[in-house]
Amino acid sequence: MALASLPLLGTNRLARAGWKPMAALLISHAVVQLFKRTVGRRRPSCAVRARSAIADPDRFSFPSGHAAASMSIAVVYAALFPTLTVPLILGATAVGLTRVLLGVHYPGDVIASQLIAAATALAVLAR
Length: 127
What we know:
By secondary structure, the protein is mainly alpha-helical. The protein has helices at 2-5, 13-17, 19-39, 44-47, 65-80, 85-101, 107-126. The longest helix has 21 residues, at 19-39. The two termini are 21 Å apart. The relative contact order is 0.18.
């Protein structure tokens, strides 16, 4: 949230575009939470009795809120600042990968959340 809102403090091109990452983040978060509560998929640590490397953030796994948040912000900033596209998308992808490696999400959780985030970000950018 802080990264998404940081540009709003400036007075340049970044500040004028600052509402877009915040909007993408908020909308993608709302969609992710709707899916989480509707689908109710248990986390890997509960479903297969595996131990996760960190405490489960909540009981539901699908989709990943962390992966969606990072990707929604990355896609918006990548569109606004194309020279940063590769590091932004790689960073967001790495966040998703860590969620799987930490044992709190299945790969499909992350892929779905990143697709939700990308679609949300593109919709925000289209406005």
